[in-house]
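FAQ: What does a ligand-bound record look like?

Like this one, built around 6-chloro-9H-purine:
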Amino acid sequence: MTAHLKKAELHCHIEGAAPPALALAQARKYNVDVRGIIEDGAYVWADFSHFLTCYDAVAELFRTEEDYALLAEAYLTELAQAGTIYSEIIVSPDHGNTIGIGSDAYIRGLAAGIEAAKAKTGIEGRMIITIIRHMGPEAAEKTALYAARREHPLVTGFNLAGEERMHKVADFARAFDIARDCGLGITIHAGEMVGAFSVRDALDHVRPSRISHGVRAIEDADLVKRIAAEGVVLETCPGSNVSLQVFPDFAAHPLRALYEAGCRVTLNSDDPPFFHTSLKQEYEIASQVMGFSDDEINGMTRTAIEAAFVDEPTRKRLL
Ligand code: ES4
Ligand code: ZN
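The answer part, i.e. the structure of the complex:
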């Protein structure tokens, strides 16, 4: 049982955390037909690219600063009730532009939700601005310049998400340079939908302190050694991986092998209701299905806090 354990997560896309019931309420509010996206109270998608389309459709149900505040508050409050003390949510200012409120209002709304959840439960939250791979390097550099203005203190990190099969990591090196130069923490999606080479590319071109997923590094023993030696932290999301059929089941998931090889690993939910999971469930799977002891799981939580994009006094308080 992991219900009593303290938890932390570094990798959750905020629109992907919207409970289907909340998305349905939003659809009713804005009179949007979501049949084909939400069926029988669950999100419907067939494969990764279809999931990305479905994700964008759900994101478009959140249209005002208040909608985003509600979303962040609802998600973080639920996390806190499961014993979570820290969460980094991945946010995409591009969604703010799509719905017409702009990046600042989008971030302000989410920040209000983070603050409200903290006031109610004590949970600490931060935001990671992500660029979207399939939107291309030019859009990415624009978003990086926006992030580099450091307008909101709760935005502390920078990520690259989206369709891993499009473009090369090197195409986004400039965007990452902009983000790194202004002091944002750096992480990047790699080694999820494509193989170990993408993790190697990410390390070589982006020099991240963390990798979002990174689990397919397991395909290359030298790369696993390098990850362990360099102390790069892996934000693993086993439930997401199994749901997207990156691995057929939890028994085939490489979390245990990466851990045994000395890699620093953490537990994360990714897009929880889309992948029929939650942070609570990821902890439970690590314990009950993958056989990690409470001490080992507490070590992963500690790793998450050590790798969190927070100032040192906050980290000290959380540890
Ligand atoms: C993602 Cl762009 C995006 N949104 C949500 N989840 C993701 N996983 C990978 N890319
Ligand atoms: Zn992700």
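Follow-up question: can I read anything off the structure? Yes, for example: The mean pLDDT is 98.
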